[in-house]
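Hi V.,

You were right to ask for the full record rather than a summary. Here it is.
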Amino acid sequence: MTEELFREDATLLECRARVVAVDDAGIVLDRTVFYPVGGGQAGDAGVLRLPDGRTVAIADTRKHPERPGDIAHVMSAEVDAALRAALVPGLEVTASVDAARRRAHMRFHTATHLLCALVPHAVNGCSITAGYARLDFHMSEPLDKEALSAGIARLVGEAHAVSHRWISEAELDANPGLVRSMSVQPPRGLGRVRVLEIEGVDLQPCGGTHVANTRDIGDVVVTKIEKKSAMTRRVVLGFAAPAAG
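Predicted structure:
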């Protein structure tokens, strides 16, 4: 199984690793800082640096479809055959995440937790990218864009600590209210579940990457609210445009 360094430290952007396998799904490493798409969050991109200085562009990261527990680093289509041939099992590489993309994911993902605290309804859809984030809430009542933006700004300004810990599956079963999502359930079978806590604001299972304090989210606002169905309200988040001048 690929050692998932990003689970414990989302600020870790680089690590040394060894190639385990290369196949149609991508490059499997023994350890990685690359987050694979999941839980609504997009996968990381970046590069793998070889000992001779050449770099392999990684366009996406996904859970390997045929190797449970392994992560596939998806090569860019521009990587040539000679470079692909150099990626043999046992080769030591440096895995380096696209820092700007990761930072955007961390800011948006943490902001969606603030949104969950402001809208007390179950979530039935989620998407977190470097350009925007959205949550679909199972509800029929209207939502106010300006009020939600103000609520997010307030929680950002209050500088709440953000941390994670692991609980047992039995603890989760004893507290079913922790699960807010109707569409993405916490992974089972490992005996433990990762929970994300924003002190005094939110606590729920989550395996994504987050900032360490709500103040690090910065200027995130609600850009759109849509009525997707009779029982679904979609809230879209974006980064606030910088002030003119």
